[in-house]
Amino acid sequence: MRGYLGIDVGSVSTNIVFLSERGEVCEAVYLRTRGQPIRALQEGLGELRRRLPAEVSVLGVGATGSGRYLAGLVTGADVIKNEITSHAVAASTLVPGVQTVIEIGGQDSKLIILRGGIVADFAMNTVCAAGTGSFLDQQAARLGIPIEDFGRLALQSSAPVRIAGRCAVFAESDMIHKQQMGYSLADILAGLCEALVRNYLNNVGKGKEILPPVVFQGGVAANAGMKRAFEKALGMEVIVPPYYHVMGAVGAALLAREKMAARRPSKFKGFGVTEARFQAAGFECGGCPNACEVVELREGGEVLARWGDRCGRWSSSLGLQNVG
Amino acid sequence: MKVTFPHMGHLWVSVAAMLQYLGVEVVVPPPTTKRTLTLGSRYAPEFACLPLKLNLGNFIEARELGADTILMAGGCGPCRFGYYAQVEHAILEDLGYRYRLVVMEPPQRHAGELLAKIKYITGHRSWLEVARAIWFGFQKARLLDELERRAHYLRPREVRRGSTDRAFGEALKIVAAVRHPRDMAKAAEQAHRIMSEVAFDAYRPVLRVGIVGEIFTLLEPFANYDLERKLGHMGVEVDRSIYLSEWINDHLLFGLAGGRRTRKAACRAAAPYLNHFVGGHGQETVGSAALYAAQGYDGVIQLMPFTCMPEIVAASILPKLKAELGIPVLTIVVDEHSGEAGLITRLESFVDLLHGRKGVEG
User: Fold this and answer.
1) Closest approach of A25 to chain B, Cα-based (Å)
2) B229 — contact with chain A (CB < 8 Å)?
3) Share of residues in chain B with pLDDT > 70 (%)
4) Are residues A45 and A115 in the same domain?
5) What pLDDT is stored for residue A129 in this prediction?
6) Mean pLDDT for the stretch of residues B104-127
7) Does A135 share its domain with A159?
8) Is some CB atom of chain A closer than 8 A to the CB atom of B281?
9) Which of A219, B32, B86, B151 could tie B168 with a disulfide, CB 3.0–4.6 Å?
10) How distant is the Cα of B172 from the closest Cα of chain A, in angstroms?
11) Across the A/B interface, how many CB contacts are shorter than 8 Å?
């Protein structure tokens, strides 16, 4: 079996997919990053290895997500791409003709506008995380309901309560207030979904032309309440594609396939990296008052890369690519 | 009297040259760093914009080096900057940093007001000498802008990564070290030679992006996270809508020095979208974006500090321009809470977007 690896190391989850040569998703692993991207990546790769047949051959590796450079260094990726491009590629491959991609992950949310299969515009949330997965997670925990049940419960609502959604902290106090008033849990959850959608459309979607077909992906797309709230606000159908939760990884794998079409040998270090000992550690540079926090990644005793310095004193001293 | 002034890109080279030529003792604030920002944002009002915070940090750091007089620009346009000199001075006073404040601004009643301020700084020097000093500073600004334009061209095409930055750093040192106008020609030749030694690949395909927006965030690399260098290393040749020498020519020399571009031209180009002054550089931002579209640039990036009113006005008009002229525009807002990782992701995505469009059209 031959195919491509796509790796998406995000703030909340680490997702890895194995894509066949024809571009079909064979296996997908989704696990929590828990602040330890290297360990999550190694565990995920190990899990994928167990699920795949023994004679598997990796033709190329793509890495994306906020931990893309780290993941790329650890595994030996052939392509390292930002999340916008990866998500756009995956959406337009799985849902041909898509014009709008709504992606809501753990700590950020994106809007991608495609026209004719090409990214025409995009936006990401800036200073506020009120509309993202972490907030939903936290509220589900506070209300004592498993996050998996959130959407199903929200769908039972017939009269969603209006909740102040501009700020996560105020949204929470407003929800508590509505609970004390005696509104039903379902109406509050549905109200929260609507508030988050309002917040998303006002902040991320401002000034953008949202045209169908609209695809909704990222971990939060699992929440049927959010899907319904988007459909209600936009007045159009919202498609949640299969593999919605690992679309970044699918995109990275597709990009790897495109890059390796010329049949070059992959830089993939092999599944052995799950056993290797990687250490990432930071130190503060004393070279000037910028006091950059430089990060150093080591494998065994060898320094693989350094980054985080503004002036390039550390990152360029290795003769390696500055990973920004 | 030891005179200091705020940083804004390479402004210090010109201002220090002017003042030193007139025999004024100058304290150039230490280069703007994270410490500057930390000091500035500790004492500045939370909702003031980034320039105020960095100015304040510069002044505190310059005081530590013995500066006792602040030379600052003012004005009374609809942008808050016109009042920053006084606000910053008041904050410094509260903190116990004693400073004399001299604000250069268009006079309210008669020209004598401004002349008296210049005399205060320059003492007994003749007006002819003052004019020569200003011309000297302007020459330095113009030379640095030429060198920087060259760097913008070279960076995406350099054969060895980082060689442009190293060459520009050297050239900058040479220009900064010139003490007398008669040595300028020689310095210019040397600086240009250093830049010409950077090996580059003239046939490498590059993207061209115009950068527009608020002057401080455009000119100060610390404020914009070295945006131009980052884009250069991503294979983008940048141009900036404002260069210091153009600004000096427009605002201090009444356009006498001639030049490629003027404020007037930008405002004419803005007219179909924004036919009115909205403070700061809002009108120039819209106009420059239109000009870049007309010149066939692949994209435009708008830069502004968080809460910048004129640029917010411009940002709300740009989507219309974008739709009519078909040029992609990315707006980037900076403040002390900005994350570099988020900026890099946006820039990479924007560059991919431009490549994607080019692939379809080409």
Assistant:
1) 24
2) no
3) 97
4) no
5) 60
6) 83
7) yes
8) no
9) B151
10) 16
11) 69
One domain for residues B167 and B253: no
For residue A320, the model assigns a pLDDT of 46
Contacts of B348 in chain A (CB under 8 A): 81-82, 84-85
Touching A: B residues 289-328, CB under 8 Å: 316, 319, 328
DSSP designation for B125: -
Helices (H), chain A: 37-51, 68-75, 83-94, 133-143, 147-155, 168-181, 185-203, 224-234, 247-259
User: Helix axis angle, A83-94 relative to B340-361, nearest 10°?
Assistant: 50
A82 and B36 in contact by Cβ < 8 A? no
Q: How far apart are CA A252 and CA A258, in angstroms?
A: 10
For residue A61, is it within any domain?
yes
B209 closest CA partner among B334, B360, B332: B332
User: For chain B, how many helices (H) and strands (E)?
Assistant: 15, 8
Residue B360's pLDDT is what? 60
Chain B hits for A310, Cβ within 8 Å:
226
Of B35, B162, B342, the CB nearest to A124: B342
A115 and A231 assigned to the same domain: yes
Number of structural domains (chain B) is 3
- Which residue range is the domain that position A295 belongs to? 278-318
In a domain, B131, yes or no: no
For residue B91, the enclosing domain spans 2-125
Between A324 and B41, the higher pLDDT residue: B41
B173 touches chain A (CB under 8 A): no
**Which residues contact residue A146 at a Cβ distance below 8 angstroms, ignoring those fewer than 6 apart?**
A140
List CB contacts (< 8 A) between A211 and chain B: none
Measure in Å the smallest separation between the Cα of B340 and chain A Cα atoms.
9
CB–CB contact A324 B230 (8 Å): yes
Neighbour tally for A207: CB within 10 Å: 13
Instruction: Give the model confidence (pLDDT) of B154-175 as tens digits.
Output: 999 999 988 999 999 999 999 9
Whether residue B57 is contained in a domain is answered as yes
What pairs with residue A217 in β-bridges?
A103
Q: Which residues of B touch A83 (CB under 8 A)?
A: 345, 349
Question: Distance (Å, rounded) from C-alpha A102 to C-alpha A215?
Answer: 6
The tokens for B266 are 């930008």
Are residues B230 and B149 located together in one domain of the fold? Answer: no
Q: Which residues of chain A have pLDDT under 50?
A: 319-324
Closest chain A residue to the Cα of B316, Cα to Cα: A207
**Per-residue confidence (pLDDT) for residue A128, from 0 to 100:** 64
Question: What residues in chain A have their Cβ under 8 A from chain B's Cβ atoms?
Answer: 66, 81-85, 108, 116, 118-122, 124, 126-127, 207, 288-292, 310, 312, 316, 322, 324
- Residue type at B254 in one-letter notation: F
Q: Per residue in B228-279, pLDDT tens?
A: 999 999 999 999 999 999 888 877 777 777 666 778 889 999 999 999 888 8
Question: Are B192 and B211 found together in one domain?
Answer: no
Q: Report the C-alpha gap between B40 and B38 in whole angstroms.
A: 6
Q: Are residues B165 and B255 in the same domain?
A: no
Q: Over 90: is that where the pLDDT of B31 sits?
A: yes
Whether residues A109 and A231 fall in one domain: yes
B-interface mutation test, from A8, A127, A255, A323, most B Cβ less than 10 A away: A127
What integer pLDDT is reported at residue B165 of this predicted model? 93
In a domain, A324, yes or no: no
Distance from CA of B215 to the nearest CA of A (A): 22
